[in-house]
Design goal:
Blueprint: H1 2-27, E1 59-64, E2 86-88, E3 94-108, E4 115-120, E5 123-127, H2 142-145, E6 153-171, E7 177-189, E8 191-194, E9 202-204, E10 210-216, E11 226-233, H3 245-250, E12 252-253, E13 262-268, E14 279-286, E15 291-297, E16 299-301
Parallel strand pairs: 1-2, 7-15, 9-16
Antiparallel strand pairs: 1-7, 3-6, 3-7, 4-5, 4-6, 8-10, 10-13, 11-14, 12-13, 14-15
Bound molecules: calcium ion (CA) (3 copies).
Length: 304
């Protein structure tokens, strides 16, 4: 009887220990808050490696724990967005290269009340909005949660160059959950050569001639992605009809011989508003709607 009792006691202890281990594995740093706050199931021990996060507005979903802890990848533990617009953020830090001006948006989802602090290379960029716990949920889709003022979110602009994001939990009334961030390229910068191959870039504002402006292609800019109907240089529109395929083809050249094709467009010099300016800016949209901007020095001539 003693032996049986001991075995039973041992077995019970083992079961309790096993249950404790199971709970520990289930929660890790993330107290199980349930699907209501975005935690789907056990988060696996494996981390989801990711080279870089995209800057196209896709939502990157992460798991978070108690206040002060840092967010992690979902590793199978997140309820995905019902909008079909999310992926597992992967293992932090979340790195990306901004090609101009980018907006990082961090958004809580599911139950209201969680709040976050965003870091870039360990420097705080700011906190998402302070909200109250009200028992309501904005659901799983961050596109719906962002405009909901009862759900915490924030938009943080960052500039051209490398970035490395981490997210710390400020408020976590349910002990943990899932939330999102995304990155949108607001403006992509392009290298520009006004009057390719010549310098200074004199523009005679009384001239009936045109000034050529080259948008230089690169590893990060395919100039054939430019919507030519949106081209503007210093207040002027292109002289030629670039919507004509033959005309357009003649304006694709590699002016700096770097192997990347460039887009050369021409603007009536008298239409430009360069007087008093040190630089001339060319703008356009890419075919996906992203704004493109680039500038080069100018030397305005015959100004009033
Ligand atoms: Ca939440
Ligand atoms: Ca030039
Ligand atoms: Ca080129």
């Amino acid at each position: 009887m003693v032996c049986t009792s001991m075995i039973r006691k041992l077995t019970l202890t083992t079961i309790i220990a096993a249950a404790f281990v199971a709970v520990t594995l289930t929660s890790g740093n993330f107290a199980y808050a349930g699907a209501d706050n975005g935690i789907a199931s056990e988060r696996s021990d494996s981390v989801t490696a990711l080279a870089a996060v995209t800057t196209d507005g896709l939502w990157h979903e992460f798991l978070f724990g108690g206040p002060g802890s840092f967010a992690q990848d979902c590793a199978g533990g997140c309820v995905p967005s019902s909008g079909g617009n999310s992926v597992d953020a992967g293992n932090p830090p979340w790195t990306f290269n901004c090609l101009g001006v980018c907006d990082v948006t961090v958004s809580d989802a599911f139950l209201n009340g969680d709040q976050f602090l965003l870091f870039d290379f360990a420097v705080p960029l700011g906190a998402t909005s302070a909200v109250v716990v009200n028992g309501a949920s904005c659901g799983s889709d961050p596109a719906i949660c962002v405009p909901d003022v009862l759900s915490s979110s924030g938009v943080f602009p960052v500039l051209q160059g490398a970035h490395s994001l981490t997210i710390q939990t400020i408020a976590s009334p349910f002990g943990g959950g899932a939330a999102y961030f995304n990155i949108v390229t607001v403006v992509q910068f392009a290298d520009v050569d006004i009057k390719p191959g010549s310098d200074p870039n004199s523009i005679n504002t009384k001239s009936k001639g045109v000034v050529p402006v080259a948008i230089l292609g690169s590893a990060t800019l395919d100039v054939t992605d430019i919507d030519v109907s949106t081209l503007q240089f210093a207040g002027a529109s292109p002289k030629h009809d670039l919507s004509d395929p033959l005309v357009y083809a003649a304006h694709l050249q590699d002016v700096n011989l770097d192997g990347f094709v460039d887009l050369v467009s021409h603007y009536p010099q008298k239409d430009t508003t360069v007087c008093g300016q040190a630089t001339g800016e060319i703008t356009a949209n890419l075919l996906d709607g992203t704004a493109l901007s680039g500038s080069d020095s100018v030397r305005p001539l015959h100004c009033p």
